[in-house]
Amino acid sequence: MKNNLLSIWNRWLVRFIYAPGDDEEVLLTKNIWAGVVTSTFFLGLMAMAVYGCLGLYILVYLMAGFCAYLLTIMLVYLHIRKHAEEFFVATEIFKMLFAFAAVLITGGILHSGGFVFIGFAGIYFALLFPDPGKVRFLLLLYLTTVVLEALLQPYVAPLVQFSDAENLTLFVLYFIATAVTLYFFIRIYNRERMRFRQLEAEKLRSLDAARSHFFTNISHEFRTPLTVILGMADEIRATSAQKADYAAHLIQCNGKKLLRLVNQLLDLSKLEAGHLTAHYVQDDVVTELRYLLESFHSLAEAKNIRLHFSSQTHEIPMDFDLEKLEHLAGNLLENAVKYTPAGGEVWLKVERLAAVPSSLAATLEAGPCLLLQVKDTGIGIPPEHLGRIFERFYQVGEWPTEGSGIGLAMVREYVRLFGGHIDVDSRPGEGSVFSIFLPIKNTAPRRVSSNGSPPLEAWKKEERFWPKSNTAASHPRLLIIEDNPDVIYYLQNFLHEDFDVKIAFDGERGIELAIEKIPDVIISDIMMPKKDGLEVCRVLKNDFRTNHIPIILLTAKTDVASRIAGLEAGADAYLAKPFNRRELEVELKKLTALRETLKRKFSHSLAQPLPPSPPKGLNERFLYDVQHCLEKHFPDEDFGIKELCSMTGVSRTQLHRKLMALTGQPASHFIRSFRLEKARELLRTTRMTVAEVAYAVGFKDSYYFSRTFSQEFGLSPSEAREV
């Protein structure tokens, strides 16, 4: 109950005395001072009532002036809400001078009825300020008044005189009131100060964790373009002139991305130092934003996302900092594309408003303004996260995508730097709309036109630069699950000759393709939309249809914990970006060779008797179930693929691909090989004729049986009996 009352008191005080810029410590000091003044005011009223009952009207008038001063200074402070130290000093000096006067009026310290204690409390309350040294002179002032009162004691003629009983009673009451007030307020102060220190320590821990997370993520952001830059630099050495040009273009694009990240880090450090400034030029903002949107076309097309640009006018000349405007709009567009699923849409709208909206009249300067709006049909932002999305290092984390956690924070800082305002409207599952209002001014010097062309990202639209996969049946199938088109191009560029490459741009589509195509090997990134690489591993490794497929995790996460998490999820190999091309090729060859070894192992299992109980491994269990079904029905000449699919609960295609992956044999050949193994066993252990053995294992035609038996084992049924 007591804590609830204190909480209500604190909330009430904060609402009335808070001023912009106050931190927890300043608010605590202001709360304590306001509580002291308020309690002193009410104690003064009580003392005035007591003096009135005693008929001491001089003291009644004196206490009335005392209470009037306290009430006045409190009302003035509630209006200003600043300069707490100055108000405290003024109050305590007045209380000490008032106590000095009251002691002299009542005949000195020994006959003052406890007035000497009125100034005593201020000495302790001075400790509440961040720098107590500033109010140390209050102690000297109080000691000076006490010494003067003691020296003047024999010479003072009292104007008001207490009886001995009244003097003792009032002396005790003043002492108790002062002691109780000091006890409670100092106790409250110490408890709140302790709570504040704990909160501060927690904030520091959170900030340290956020910074560590930030530097981890920013290293990821660096590693992805570095993978492309270093890889394509190697490709340039042994490629055609056209491909060399495109490789150089990829290096340039990813180099620009690295430069943008570095510039944002520099802007962040300048912002923390208070040195972030804008370098304005005057130019057409519509053209610049249209070109900026063009640079996102390849990324959007890779995810099947449609981009739209909307502007009511062809030209809006205004002052802007080109680099920071590109960072501002680029961060919003990058997030919009990143968090919009395939088939979605993203709009960039630019509009000139004749006047600032009325709702922002108190925030923005009067006059025309630019409305820059980025809208998407993405996953949206949950309401509980909306209040924190502009905090530094904060990430919603609805989809595990790469990011530094400073993009939206820097967007807000750039908007503030430009004197603008940003709003966000988002609904989970429907999308988000970021609206930025920037004042339009035309005072900066005109920018000299560079007659630039649209961004080089248009190169990516030309499919002639993309290598074609080798779809020959003899080449293994490779599934690449990666959301970065540049990394996909780089991987496909040196793997297309040896693999039939399939592409998925997010984890969810990757799982679908893996189940549908049953590739021989998978390369997957970890940080991707919808489902991350770890989830892809867990899903595929726990599905009997795909658990045999080797998975290589290719990611920017290089720490040991991430590597362990990847291997625990079922990854067969873990390579960190930027990776060595040769290392990846070796891993692919090693894993495909391992699959061939397992095929030989499983294909030879037909000659072995079934174990008494089902094995634990998913692959072994699948083959056990298939062989168990065949064991029961192989004599039935009508038992075939359709019946086997029905009994094992898989489709014809899945059965075929799974058996091909495990044994190197299609389903029909696997069933035939099983029957032939049974036939060889019967030939060795019984005296049945060849024709009888053929019929016993489900062959209708003994001549066909003899021919396929010879093809399978390299000797005729008669010869097999003699071996």
Short summary:
This protein has helices at residues 2-17, 24-53, 57-80, 84-105, 121-125, 137-152, 164-236, 241-273, 285-294, 297-302, 322-338, 383-386, 407-417, 485-495, 507-517, 533-541, 560-568, 581-604, 618-633, 641-648, 652-663, 667-685, 690-696, 702-713, 717-722; strands at residues 281-284, 306-311, 317-320, 345-353, 369-376, 421-427, 431-439, 477-481, 500-504, 521-524, 551-555, 573-576.
Structure description:
- By secondary structure, this protein is of the alpha/beta class.
- Helix 23 packs across helix 24 (702-713).
- Helix content is 57%, strand content 10%.
- Residues 450-465 have low confidence and may be disordered.
- It has four domains: 2-205, no CATH class; 277-444, Heat Shock Protein 90 (2-Layer Sandwich), CATH 3.30.565; 466-603, 3-Layer(aba) Sandwich (Rossmann fold), CATH 3.40.50; 608-722, Homeodomain-like (Arc Repressor Mutant, subunit A), CATH 1.10.10.
- The chain has a five-stranded mixed β-sheet with strand order 2-4-5-7-6. A five-stranded parallel β-sheet has the order 9-8-10-11-12, sandwiched between helices. Strands 1-3 form a two-stranded antiparallel sheet.
- The longest helix has 73 residues, at 164-236.
- The chain contains 25 helices and twelve strands.
- It is elongated, with a radius of gyration of 41 Å.
- The protein has helices spanning 2-17, 24-53, 57-80, 84-105, 121-125, 137-152, 164-236, 241-273, 285-294, 297-302, 322-338, 383-386, 407-417, 485-495, 507-517, 533-541, 560-568, 581-604, 618-633, 641-648, 652-663, 667-685, 690-696, 702-713, 717-722; strands at residues 281-284, 306-311, 317-320, 345-353, 369-376, 421-427, 431-439, 477-481, 500-504, 521-524, 551-555, 573-576.
